[in-house]
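Entry:
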Amino acid sequence: MKEELDKAEFGMFPAQEHCARRLYKCFRKSGTSDLSDMLLSLILLCLLDLVFLENANMYKLCQSSTMEFYYTLCYERSKPIISIEPCASSRQQKMNISLTWIPTMDLHRLLLTVDVWYQSAKVSETRMDICTGVDDEFDFCGKLKGETVHVRLEKGLEKFPPVKGKFTANFNLYAGEEEELVFCATAIGILMI
């Protein structure tokens, strides 16, 4: 296994995808049909992508003889504390995943999107309303900006196919009625079983 993963293997970062969508919406709203303006903006966006890829920090979550987990964040200013224990790929054993985070916005309405890729093929696309303001399942819903959020999940690998290889998951968290991107991360899991 390579000591250092190639950052370009992540594909498109969620922040750039979000930025491209917002740029497209701006052009649509303004009624601009000038392709040269649009092309210039897209070129600038691509240049910013190159700068971002060079500066992205990759963090190791866990490493064992059967698996490795890494992640990178779109916004370093909102860096959460994440842990996975035990770092094992047994289908019978559950992993405890914990996250501690101080949000930079109120958590009244939250939408999470998760795209999962195996090697270079998209295998799952999920969109979940996490906080709606009515009978929310999670106790952090309703927390205010600056309050510490603790999340603890127990998950297993039973949903993953029993294959070796690299899984990549892009997590995007949107807040408010305008669905503003407030947190995003890309996680890589390498199964060696």
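The chain has two domains: 10-56, 57-191.
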